[in-house]
Amino acid sequence: MSTFIDNQNWRYATKKFDATKKVSDTDLAILKEAIQLTASSYGLQPYKVLIIENPEIRKQLQAASWGQTQIVDASHLLVFVNHTNIDETYIAKFVDHIAETRGIQTEALKGYQDVMNANVAGLPADVKNTWASKQTYIALGNLLAAAAELKIDVTPMEGFVPAEYNKILGLTEKGLNASLVATIGYRHEEDATQHFKKVRKPLEKLFETI
Questions:
Q1: Among 65, 179, 198, 208, which is 20 to 30 Å from 56 by CA?
Q2: What is the pLDDT of residues 36-94, one digit of tens each?
Q3: How far apart are CA 17 and CA 23, in angstroms?
Q4: How far apart are CA 3 and CA 93, in angstroms?
Q5: Full-model pTM
Q6: What is the DSSP string of 88-157?
Q7: Where does 2-206 sit in CATH, by number?
């Protein structure tokens, strides 16, 4: 566990990536699996993760990201996109997947399916979209932790225009919405931010036992 804490102290939101260094396919596979294994509400995973490799598209997305250089300089650009309408059809497919994976009948999951239909599918559209978007942040947490273990830098980014991302990537017509961006790669030696002392609330102010 001490190694985990050391790695969390090592990581920071990288401001300048070394564009000449690339994350290996092996390490990328580990990061993808870490995201895949992330906990989500009901296990629904109401999102996808787009890995943007096309340099021209990345340039377009940079313009929609306040010109931030990480978008084009990082080894990989990940865009977390949430489903905008988790309806009864989506939930039914999820239940079928559970049944197939665990070798049980879908009828045995009817109670669980009914709960999800009532608590998720039945939500107002705006509330459901917000809920789905929040799930992507849990996945980001796993990505940050796994990347730090591999000494891979990650910059989580909210500094972008979702509507422009949706347009560039053709997301709206697919029932998707850009929720969160993460750039991954390796810090540039000229990135002065890596030498800054980490600033966090003291434990006694962050935690309160009741």
A1: 179
A2: 999 999 999 999 999 999 999 999 999 999 999 999 999 999 999 999 999 999 999 99
A3: 12
A4: 40
A5: 0.95
A6: HHHHHHHHHHHHHHHT--GGGGHHHHHHHIIIIITS-HHHHHHHHHHHHHHHHHHHHHHHHHTT-EEEEE
A7: 3.40.109.10
